[in-house]
Amino acid sequence: MAKLQLQNLQKKYRADVIPVKDISLEIDDGEFLTLLGPSGCGKSTLLRLIAGLEPATKGQVIIGGKNVNKTAPGDRNMAMVFQSYALYPHMTAAENIATALKLRKMPETEIKRRVEQAAVKLELGNLLDRKPGQMSGGQRQRVALARALVRDPEVFLLDEPLSNLDALLREQVRAQMKQLFKEQNKPVVYVTHDQTEAMTLSTKVAVLNKGMIQQLDPPSRIYSHPANEFVASFVGSPQMNLLDLPCKNDSAGNNRDRIILSSCVALMGRRYCFKLPTNLENIENVVFGIRPEDVCLANSESEATIVGQAYLVEQLGKDNLVSLKIKDSDIIIRALLPSDRDWQDKTIPLTILPNKIHWFDIETGDRLN
Fold it and tell me: Which pLDDT score is estimated for 123?
């Protein structure tokens, strides 16, 4: 079993430049871990530390129980797929795929068998005699994947391999990759800033920011239960509504157990209030989070929680992303509404699903519920 472990891994260039800060995690056989985050968050540097292309300042990279910090990249038995494909332009697809096997001085018959086997899996049979310049981006990417596959490594590393492909090709290659690595049953570490790739490919996602893991969980947990305000804002499209709001006593003067979305009066004479979790009743201010897909049309005026004036409508196909200004306030909220109606400049009564509300600490950004 070739478990990949990172223990307190750090990369420091100088005192104020630390792209990777004390990262520890484990990836078992068959697990697909995606390192997800914005540009400059440290995900590619972390991948290079695992591969041995950069020396770690501190910490350990362990494969199958063995510390490989001092092992050369070529001896770590890892296969890496680069963003730029990194194919030799003067070689055919078959020659590119076989490169690492020839360096190992593997018998020609075994090289041929492995190349043909990978070509079948990635539908490259009629492309093996072509050079990279004669292939499309998607075909070149599949050749790069085949080159990694034939090595039969202990760990697969992929650095934004789909970023150079158009949307349609990206979707096709992504589906192939998911099935391919499921069959390999090896640890996979995948770097991307594209959350769709992270959510569809992964068994686990590590969301990184400023060199630190913000959350490490299955994709569904990352989406439904973000650990902090950063994860909530980064994961999900359209982006979650995040509002800094005061907590006040309700109209009956009871304990501070409600959050006020707006100071105006609702349709039925109620304030726009939402009940806080009981453990937060003494908090002064809070970040209120709700995803646009959880802001729904009210079925009747009596159900309305908030009323907004639509000032921007973005067409997304099945739905429209509607930006609304809450009546008598400066609060802006976005909702996903059906595309079969004209929402522009309309006054729209909305309801928010209480069990879909996320609460975050206004100072630390940490999740509160």
Answer: 84
- What is the tens place of the pLDDT at every residue in 254-286? 544 456 665 433 333 345 566 666 666 667 788
Spatial separation of the C-alpha atoms in residues 133 and 148, rounded to whole Å: 20
* Separation between Cα atoms, residue 51 and residue 91, nearest integer Å: 25
Angle between helix axes 108-121 and 93-103 (nearest 10 degrees) is 130
pTM (predicted TM-score): 0.87
Alpha helices, DSSP H only, in the chain?
Answer: 43-51, 93-103, 108-121, 137-149, 167-184, 195-201, 219-224, 229-234
Quickly tell me which residue has 């937060």 as its tokens.
280
Rounded Cα distance, 101 and 112, in Å: 10
User: Do residues 228 and 265 touch, judged by C-beta distance below 8 A?
Assistant: no
**Residue (of 98, 21, 11) closest to 53 by Cα position:** 11
Residue found under tokens 């006593």: 249
Q: In this structure, is the dihedral angle defined by the CA atoms of residues 74, 75, 81 and 82, taken in order, positive or negative?
A: negative
